[in-house]
Amino acid sequence: MQETIKVGLMGLGTVGSGVYQVLNENGSEIALRASGPIEIAKILVRDMEKERAIRVPGQLFTTDPYELVNDPEIDVIVEVMGGFENTLEILLAAIERKKSVVTANKDLIAVHGHELMDKAANAGVDFLFEASVAGGIPIIRPLIHCLAGNRIEEIMGIINGTTNFILSKMTNEKVSFAAALQEAQELGYAEADPTSDVEGLDAARKIAILASLAFNSQVTFSDVTVKGISSVTDRDVMYADQLGYVVKLIARAREVDGEIEAIVRPTFVPKDHPLAAVGGAYNAVFVKGNAVGEAMFHGLGAGSLPTASAVVGDIIEAVRNIHAGVRGKVLATSYHEKPIRSEAESVGKHYIRLVANDKPGVLGTIAAIFGETHVSIESMVQRKHDGNSAELVFVTHDVRYGDLQNALAMLSSHTTVTQVHQVLQVI
Amino acid sequence: MQETIKVGLMGLGTVGSGVYQVLNENGSEIALRASGPIEIAKILVRDMEKERAIRVPGQLFTTDPYELVNDPEIDVIVEVMGGFENTLEILLAAIERKKSVVTANKDLIAVHGHELMDKAANAGVDFLFEASVAGGIPIIRPLIHCLAGNRIEEIMGIINGTTNFILSKMTNEKVSFAAALQEAQELGYAEADPTSDVEGLDAARKIAILASLAFNSQVTFSDVTVKGISSVTDRDVMYADQLGYVVKLIARAREVDGEIEAIVRPTFVPKDHPLAAVGGAYNAVFVKGNAVGEAMFHGLGAGSLPTASAVVGDIIEAVRNIHAGVRGKVLATSYHEKPIRSEAESVGKHYIRLVANDKPGVLGTIAAIFGETHVSIESMVQRKHDGNSAELVFVTHDVRYGDLQNALAMLSSHTTVTQVHQVLQVI
């Protein structure tokens, strides 16, 4: 056993409380695994007087982050407060003062991760962020280490629990998006302002992080093409079921001809695909590599203790590295500069739902437009709509997204088509 | 980029060929990830003249392992030849000569792993064995590192592809064990002597390795209670289906009251359990921890390239550590000495299939025996058998295995019971 290592904990919300709890509850085992005891020496909070669900000695609290960062006795800073206005500055200061940093802050890493990793490598400290993607599921370390022998071809997953809860609810209980969202908010799965989850921004941040690591090239939040789930209706969910799919919010990154494609979209997933069975608050990440084939990682993607599991795993690693005298040996992994592939060039199958006049020849007209724009159709459903109109649903073969956009523009402007209501990708 | 690191490859069979292929095909990317190029400098083979599926320069071959072990230019020994009569001695010699060792040899590790890890730690070299369990699926590193903050409660999985292929075949195509085994042999999934796979010995070796790491206590092959699948009949598969289960060979280790229970048994797995969907040659490992909750790792558990993926991941790690000057920092993880729990004390649900005389009162007699031995029944099916006999199937509630054995002994010796045909665990 080596000497106690002191940790400064920034944030005592859902994740922070979990970290405190896990370090205490599993403390004796963790000390053995880390080669020595770990002690939370100071905790940054916003409100010193707030009532908290767990008992924490009040003398650990401070509202000044620099009381942690400037404390020479603290060797590891654990940042679980989120946000990034001041956080970047604080973490850079911590790295400069030779403290290893563990963070769960996906917003920050999806934008400033590369800068932080470079600075940490130069300072000879660790910068670890396993908890930033998919909560408790081990994915970042397996990707960087275990799968390092592979050329990764694709990484995709269900990495936002809120939208998966809503879509599972819509699928299983045939309720509307609005009703499912309201229930998610009442249960605390969705925030009062659900935009970041529902519009796919959260998933986009996480896939940017995963894509950077998988392809060893800088992919940031703004490189990801995003469509959220707020436009998904019960009709889409019903057609998915009829056609043998379930609707999931899929974040996917692929390398195609040396370019990186990173897209978040509501997606028709075949019912027999491993990702189709990932329900409720579970997350899963699916990886295709040229040696391993297909591998999937499945577990709880959020929540106090699961996320704390990932944070504490990183803390133990940072502490082990201090004792072994090997801090800061993690490699900066973005040695390539691969261009981001434009959405128009991405190729895939798509689901299209539209309403058209129900009169002779309309299907021929639509088929002609698809033919002209090189959009080949795999399956099709037609249903009576109201009055003189019909609802038509198409699933395409693989098409260039740019060609699909041309087809949709021509359809929308054609007099026989009342409206193109939905376009979703199909895997 | 740092200087080239030379590797000695022991074995050029299925896995060895895969390792050669992956290191060549992904070489430029691997060099970047490992901080420098990796070169296979010598290859140990049994037969220098053998025709091989891949092209390898013949001048790399040798039949003398000590040409690799004693070569001062070789820094990493990769052992993928299997067996352990001479292998232990050779690897200990390599460690003594300060070479890092990467191995996929589960037979060896399940018996001598602790000795090898200790020796490697003392010599200041790495000893890595991700490929020894579940082929390409990252499980050992995630368990040791990512989940280090957890008290692991249970680790279980489908970790033998041959038996999973046979049981999947029996389930999906309603064929007998013998027919499924024969097909597995014809397709190359099962060996001519299938004992090690079919009787659960291979799975027992792997669960011994996983249990040692999960509970930080030495668990070896001989500590595992094993029952193979050769007694599983099409009737068992049929009853499983009727009762809402599928039959899988499950290797499971749990910590109960400070003792370790490690058991391999054919098992009724509920159809909605994530492990139920793991088909054919796929493997999956399911982990329960007191922080992460439930996590599952899924992928190809065998085969040339998937296993090579894990081996090459370890080679890259070993090479990175050489360049960073941090070899041999992996901790010896068996700091506890937890006793092995006797099978009689293990508690769980069980499926029992027996044939009895079909006359009034027989069910009452059997029920009385169960009651007397504290075996509580959850569900029961009775079917006409031939002549004057009936087939009875029971699924118990949780029972002590010792109590169940008492019940079975009393049933077997009772005149109304013709024969107890099968007892399988239920999860």
Task: Walk me through the structure.
The structure is a homodimer of 427-residue chains. Chain A has 427 residues and is α/β, with parallel strands linked by helices. The first copy, chain A, has three domains: 5-135 and 304-323, NAD(P)-binding Rossmann-like Domain (Rossmann fold, 3-Layer(aba) Sandwich), CATH 3.40.50.720; 140-300, Dihydrodipicolinate Reductase, domain 2; 343-426, Alpha-Beta Plaits (2-Layer Sandwich). Helices cover 36% and strands 27% of the residues of chain A. The first copy, chain A, has helices at 14-25, 27-33, 65-69, 87-96, 106-123, 140-146, 161-173, 177-186, 195-198, 201-215, 234-243, 304-323, 362-372, 401-413; strands at 5-10, 38-44, 61-62, 74-79, 100-103, 127-128, 152-158, 225-226, 245-256, 259-270, 282-289, 293-300, 347-357, 377-384, 389-396, 399-400, 417-426. In chain A, strands 7, 8, 9, 10, 11, 12, 13, 14, 15, 16 and 17 form an eleven-stranded mixed β-sheet that branches. The longest helix of chain A is centred in the C-terminal third of the chain and has 20 residues, at 304-323. The radius of gyration of chain A is 24 Å and the shape is elongated. The mean pLDDT of chain A is 94. Strand 12 (293-300) of chain A pairs antiparallel with strand 12 (293-300) of chain B, so a sheet runs across the interface.
